Amino acid sequence: MKTYKLSNVITLKQALEQAEKRNYAIGSFSPRYTDMILPILRAGQKKNSPIIVQISQKELERYGVSPYEIGEVFYRKMQEENITVPTVLHLDHTKDFEVIEQAIEAGFTSVMIDASEHPFDNNVVISKKVAEYAHSKGVSVEAELGMIGTTDFVETDKDEELYTDPDEALEFVNQTKVDALAVSVGTAHGVYNVRKPTVDLERLKAIRALTPVHLVLHGGSGVPSEMIQAAMEIPGGGVSKVNIATDLELSLLGAIGREERMTNAECKALSEDLKAKGQAAVQKTVEDKMENFLLSANKVDSFKY
Fold first, then answer.
1. If we measure between CA atoms, which residue out of 211, 303, 224 comes closest to residue 24?
2. Sign of the torsion formed by the C-alpha atoms of 232, 14, 287 and 254
């Protein structure tokens, strides 16, 4: 395992403990392309906000990039840009243990095992194995209970949705010892073209009442800010991590006048002028999310880890 000595690159558990106490959420932003890591980091530094940079297994495959490439660019840009705000490097939805091992070796400080398509008992066994392994390496673990739908099949390959059962959440967390739980309460990955996003606050409150685990909302792109903020402000600590990917890619593609997604190699091959336009657009979107959506701007000064 590679070791990096950046004191502000922390685990997901360390980050979410702080956000949950103060009723805001940390954005888990997916660059999808290695050249889009930079604007996410710059946005966090400018807004004095903690940051989570993430990539999922399906995104690694779809965009033609490896955990090692993500890790190398992430740590290099952290140092080159002198990023000082608390930052997490997170592996999102992942099915294969081998990819989790690679990410941890590449310096990721948090991983997500997604065995939500399995029956409850199998999900517990798989998630517990990952938690034991990652914790032995000093890495946080997120898991999923219930199934979060999708509209574009980029991050996950299922459009089925199954809401998280609060009683099962308690049992699941107790058995697996995961640090964070992605819950299915109405949001979906991708763009909301037909269905409207919802957040089942009563279900979130019931989950919170039964378990102290940090709660994660996937499918944050396109959800109205008032829905997200209501989920963050649940008594006892609401959602403290919100995943945002599609909005960033739409900003990038719009800025460079393109409709179709690229591969990572195609993005790297863009002219410097086009790439700079794309990076500026992504940075602006991330800054807006931190300021107006997640309420994480200017929260670093009260951050302790």
1. 303
2. negative
Task: Please pick, among 92, 165, 179, 247, the residue that the annotation labels catalytic.
Answer: 92
**237 labelled ligand-binding:** no
Annotated active-site residue 92? The verdict is yes
**Between 196 and 80, where is the model more confident?**
80
Residue 138, SS3 per DSSP: coil
Q: Is 219 annotated as a binding residue?
A: yes
189 is in an annotated binding site: yes
pLDDT in tens, 15-68: 999 999 999 999 999 999 999 999 999 999 999 999 999 999 999 999 999 999
Residue 51 gets which letter from DSSP? E
Q: Which of 102, 47, 124, 7 is nearest to 285 (CA)?
A: 47
Say which residue the tokens 């008594």 belong to: 235
Question: Whose CA is closest to 73, among 25, 39, 46?
Answer: 39
- Taking a C-beta distance cutoff of 8 angstroms, is the pair 104, 72 a contact? no
Query: 157 among the known binding-site residues?
Result: no
Domains and their CATH numbers in the chain: 12-292 (3.20.20.70)
Report the distance separating Cα 97 and Cα 129, nearest Å.
9
Judge whether 302 is annotated as a binding position.
no
Tens of pLDDT, residue by residue over 124-169, are: 999 999 999 999 999 999 999 876 544 444 444 443 456 888 899 9
The type of residue at 186 is: G
The tally of CA atoms less than 13 A away on the side-chain side of residue 161 is 17
Q: Quick one: DSSP state of residue 58?
A: H
CA–centroid distance for 280 within its chain = 21
For residues 126 and 135, give the distance between their C-alpha atoms in angstroms, rounded to a whole number: 14
- Using alpha carbons, select from 28, 151, 41, 35 the residue that is nearest to residue 93: 28
| Of residues 186, 248, 195, 197, the one with CA closest to residue 222 | 197
